[in-house]
Amino acid sequence: xxxxDITRTNAAVERLLETTDSPRHHWLLQAYNRHRYLEMAGxxxxxxxxxxxxxxxxxxxxxxxxxxVLDGAEAVQAVYDEWSRTAQxxxxxxxxxxxxxxxxxxxxxxxxxxxxxxxxxxxxAPVDPDAHYLVANVEHMIWPYxxxxxxxxxxxxxxxxxxxxxxxxxxxxxxxxxxxxxxLAPLIKELPPRPW
Length: 196
What we know:
Strand content: 25-35%
Order of helices and strands: HHEEHEEHEEEH
Distance between the termini: 41 Å
Organism: Nocardioides ginsengisoli
Protein name: Nuclear transport factor 2 family protein
Radius of gyration: 16 Å
Oligomer: single chain
């Protein structure tokens, strides 16, 4: 791809890993890194391993004019499954700023999510239903973690709708889930034992 490189989506996470001294914070960043790569590779089922995610996660989304709550693993998994089937699991982050604490990771970034034109048309966008696009927006995210370092959920919201963009993709720039998975496989690391 000329404009976007999925293998660089977690660049900010990897930079912070290099400078984080706290063993707990370092482990949480490794879990965050693994989660995002698994999601983008279409390997979302692995996110729900008992050491990574609580049994009943709750996600809050306020993005693209949609305010919704995904309450429980089944609801969250349905969205991940839909994104994998439509290759919306392919996304890129730019200008990401991260902070990590004992029980959360906070991120601000411009997120570019690959989206089929047909889905955008169904949502009222005047685009070619047969093309693919990147839907870009500036997002804040808070990912809370429990005492064991397991993800409790995600709180994601678009902070400035006026900065939203729909960017056409050349067919050569559209990644399939299989291509994404192959590119990301070398970057997906197993989690080490908890250091606490």
